[in-house]
Structure of SET domain-containing protein:
Amino acid sequence: MEDSNFSRRFHFVPGGNQDSAIQELIFTAVEFVSDLGEFPRSKTIRDQIQYVSKHFRTNDLVLPIPQARKDFSKAKQAWELGQTGSIRAINEALRFCPRTQSLVCELYLKRAIISYQDGYYENAKEDLVEALLVLDAKNFILEPETVFRIHHKLAQCWSKLKIFSQAVRSLRTALVQLADCNFGQSEKSQFENMIQESIDKLSKKTDSKRKVSPREGLSLSDPKPDNPCLSQAIAIVNSSHKGRFAIADRKINCGEVIVIDEPVVSLMNPDDEKLMDDLCAHCLRQCSNFQHPCPRCSTTAFCSLECRSQSQLVHGFECKVNLNQIRLENTSDSFRVFLTWKAVIQIGLEEFKRLYRKVGRDLNEPENDQERMFQMMTHERERHIEAHIKYIIVALYLHKLLEKAGVCTSDRLDWELVEAIHHLLQVQDVNTHPILGLCDEGGRSSEVGLAKVGNAINVNIGSFINHSCNPNTCRINFGRKSVLVATRTIPTGQEISDIYSMHYSEIGRQERRNWLKSMFFFECSCEACEGHWPTYEELDTNGIEPNVMEDLKQVESGIFHALKRQDFDTAFQLHVKDVHILEKAVREPNRIYISVRNSLQFCLWKKYGHF
Ligand SMILES: [Zn+2]
Ligand SMILES: [Zn+2]
Ligand SMILES: [Zn+2]
């Protein structure tokens, strides 16, 4: 069997890219099992798994696990640079510094001072709290002056945050510390007086209510009571030939946010070292300026203590097998099977198996997103035999990795768990959305520079919103959340559509449809496919009345200037106006629709998606 033909059958690696050790192993295993020639395709999945596991040792699938290590000498090197105030260098030092070293506290203090100067009081406070936590846990001997400075700075942060009771508490502790400090006598009493004055002043003030952080600001204006991810503008309908899908329950305006999907499971792409430096491993937001590293490994960082603690369970196991390091060394971007691995840990073994047992047997509406995820389409029957075998082998591999991480406590194979993993791998293959983030645009102000930062299973968008090569919405990411925004006026009753592959304007009809068929197992019947709409190059801008053209030009010039001065609200409003003019005067398909759509999507990314 020729290699490239062989690998082209698998969806993870289009083009037959076998550039990683784990992929290589799995491909070899698939080839080996396929060559046996007696795979029991017609038997139950349990029989098939047992057949595969009988023919080779699953131990062979697991590569040696690289040690998750801090590196004090690297930390010290970075700290040398960090002395000059480079946040990036301090972050790097923090990442590599073992928490058994007192340098950790110095690093947090240094970063807190910089954050404080720049007005990021919340960040500065978190750093100082963290420094004190480490200090308490490790019993370092820090110079009393340093400890004094930590408490004193912390008091200033609390005061800036208007939590005066905490500020007073920190000042009192600072005062106690001051006694041990090696300051001159007059300096000491000066400090004492200053602190005492502050205590007197701040004691009289009342704490302000904590503000909600603005990054949580994006929300639906009218969420459905039974499913708050969906707007009430959407109705879910059921048809015998199409299954469930979403239509507009009222007229939806261009620019309206209609779905905000919090994924059941999401995964960063740590195959890119730069991303790992810049993104929070939990919420996938940018955190290049301020991050809290994992206390154990040096490959993972979080944007806040909250994200770090929310990720404790999942990353705890990831960290044990040093998953991010494995991925960095041995996998490439397309190898996203660890999404399912993460789902097992997140959901818990017993619940994971219970959810699997319900698939196909419980015909009631799914009760929650996890159930819905397990009941998404798998297209198991339509898969090529080698692809099928591959999922079994990957499931065995992931089971082995769960064992190594200590998630499975017995070292015997749990057949039901392997089955359940196999099932979710197939769900994942056809229902995963990429998570994109705005990348550094290098001054280009009107292009969407997007980087793929991860993958997610969004059950609401995935279960209810069908594909169209000419969709009436676009998807943007807000951290790891996926947000669906109308890019057209959607009249009552019209189906709401998303796009799974390329837009009709980007790739020819046949190629597009073949791809959809091979990846998602369906024949597209959207208006662009049915109507044989041409691609962008072949589209024209003719047929537009001169006065309409004049109106469009005016609006577009307004958009250009608004984008230039980063006024995304105005730019957004003007896009909506642009779409309205088009809808009144110009028939689709037309080039201008494509340009406006792309520009609107960019604007929405800037308005909502910039994290
Ligand atoms: Zn985060
Ligand atoms: Zn870690
Ligand atoms: Zn189509």
Remarks:
- The mean pLDDT is 87.
